[in-house]
Amino acid sequence: MKASTILRLLAGGVIALAANAGWAQIFECIDARGVKEYARFCPPGTVQERQRGKAAASDNEPGPAPATAPKSIEIQEVEFKKRMLERQEAETKASQDKTQTEAAERNCAEARSCRPCWKGGACRVSTR
User: Fold this and answer.
1) What is the C-alpha separation between 42 and 63, in angstroms, rounded?
2) Higher-pLDDT residue of 104, 117
3) Facing residues of 28 across strands?
4) How far is CA 93 from the centre of its chain?
5) What is the H or E stretch that residue 105 is in?
6) What are the φ/ψ torsions at residue 105 (nearest 5 degrees)?
7) Dist. CA 71–CA 25, nearest whole Å
8) 1, 38, 97, 105: least buried by Cβ within 10 Å?
9) What is each CA distance from 101 to 13, 95, 123, in whole angstroms?
10) For residue 29, how many other CB atoms are within 10 A of its CB?
């Protein structure tokens, strides 16, 4: 191989490594007016932010956060029971609401059936 080819390959490798090392953490920041801004740090007043690039690995930047430990069986069981109780309460409330709605519809239908009678004056109310 020629010396110029080797130098070009070395220069390309160095550029590739430098580009990889310079990959910074970039955020897409959206403010209250909906204006998008790309920055390393989102300014105050940002409504939504989304990470667009990965952080470069260096000594002064913290590494990735450790993964959270899985929940224990007891915690999962408590959460499951809580969800089931909430679901049963929601079903009971829906059933009560349905019963009340049906009763109100029956009352309305009964009142509508008596309306012509009251309008004509044919119905009399007895007071005992």
Assistant:
1) 20
2) 104
3) 38, 50
4) 25
5) helix 73-120
6) -65, -40
7) 31
8) 1
9) 75, 10, 28
10) 20
